[in-house]
Design brief:
Elements (H helix, E strand, L loop, with lengths): L1 H20 L3 H15 L3 H20 L4 H20 L2 H19 L9 E6 L4 E5 L18 E6 L3
Antiparallel strand pairs: 1-2, 1-3
Helix pairs in contact: 2-3, 3-4, 4-5
Length: about 160
């Protein structure tokens, strides 16, 4: 019985440490917050979330990562910077597509999140984004076309 309790404690501790040290978690969380602001067509909140996302990315831009990961991280940071320079909801949405493409590419080699993620495609914008649910809430058009899109892939944690 003691052995089982010890093993369970070790397993739970390992999972807790993994979740606390995942450098992608704050990035994905800020991405979802940005997505929510874009769905609501809230440009002021989107600007704040872009700044927060940039700060969450800082440790990754300095980390020693693979060449492919480094390229995608640089692409995400470039999209964030271009978004902030655009200072418009349309500019945020245009760069969100580039940001999403980099995050989708990163998800193939990195454990980004502890739960399933969904890749959603908007045929009107011809762009993907990542969602934490399989329900469509379109960040590219907001309320104007809230349900435009479909889930075309599921990203399962490794």
């Amino acid at each position: 019985m003691k052995t089982i309790i010890i093993l369970l404690t070790m397993l739970l501790s390992t999972q807790l440490i993994k979740s606390q040290t995942n450098p992608w978690k704050p990035v994905v969380q800020k991405y979802f917050e940005l997505e929510k602001a874009l769905v609501a067509s809230d440009s002021k909140t989107a600007a704040v979330k872009l700044t927060e996302l940039s700060k969450a990315m800082a440790p990754l831009t300095k980390a020693k990562v693979s060449k492919g990961t480094s390229k995608q991280v640089q692409g995400m940071q470039a999209a964030i910077n271009a978004s902030l320079q655009s200072n418009s909801l349309e500019g945020y949405r245009t760069q969100f597509s580039k940001l999403s493409n980099s995050l989708i590419a990163l998800s193939k080699d990195n454990n980004l999140w502890e739960d399933k993620l969904y890749v959603v495609y908007c045929p009107m914008k011809e762009a993907n984004w990542i969602s934490s649910t399989n329900e469509v809430a379109n960040p590219y058009y907001g309320k104007a076309m809230l349900s435009c899109g479909s889930v075309n892939a599921t990203i399962t944690p490794k």
